[in-house]
Specification:
Elements: E1 2-5, E2 12-15, E3 19-21, E4 24-26, H1 32-37, E5 46-52, E6 58-64, E7 72-78, E8 80-87, E9 98-104, E10 110-113, E11 117-123, E12 128-134, E13 143-145, H2 166-169
């Protein structure tokens, strides 16, 4: 695996190192030792999958608060997404900054998002599947979100006509108490 640091402290794009032959390829998608060597949280408490029927579907911006903050490792297994993380750590030099990466079933990239960052994505094609590995169990009482279009962040999204849940659309802006 190749670890490419993003401008957000602790955030990494992870490229697969494929061993290819006429049958296809083999690649590791996780290694506890390599994650620890890069200072990343190697704990995996649960895995989830998100299937999205329509292009333009937007999910986010989600995170969990203490004592159940979580790190996420996100990979698109089918289709394509515009994957976004925004830094919500007030003490961070990159507070309120965001990073986006295109993850596709073809490129196999992964996005490691450390605790303290909110995460969301927008599908770029129909029938897109996203696989998550989280360092903490889901705790509804600690689940939070911020608006996907919060002016405090200035995030841009590739598809203007978004398909979003009522819950995600109702998240408050950061300045309003998240």
């Amino acid at each position: 695996m190749l670890f490419i640091e993003t401008k957000l402290a602790g955030g990494y794009i992870i490229e697969l190192e494929k061993i290819e032959d006429d049958r296809g390829f083999f690649a590791r998608t996780f290694c506890q030792r390599e994650f620890e060597a890069h200072g990343l949280n190697p704990r995996i408490a649960q895995c989830s999958v998100s299937f999205n029927r329509r292009k333009g579907t937007l999910r986010g911006m989600h995170y969990q608060v203490a004592p159940y903050e979580e790190s996420k490792l996100v990979r698109c297994t089918m289709g394509a997404i515009y994957d976004v993380a925004v830094d919500l750590r007030p003490e961070s030099r990159t507070f309120k900054q965001w990073v986006a990466v295109e993850l596709t079933g073809e490129n196999g990239r992964m996005f490691y998002i450390p605790q303290g960052l909110a995460h969301g994505f927008q599908t770029l094609v129909d029938n897109t599947e996203v696989f998550y590995q989280m360092s903490e169990f889901y705790h509804p009482q600690c689940a939070r979100g911020v608006r996907w279009d919060d002016p405090a962040f200035g995030m841009t999204w590739p598809i203007k006509e978004v398909i979003i849940s009522i819950k995600d659309a109702s998240f408050a802006a950061l300045a309003n108490g998240n």
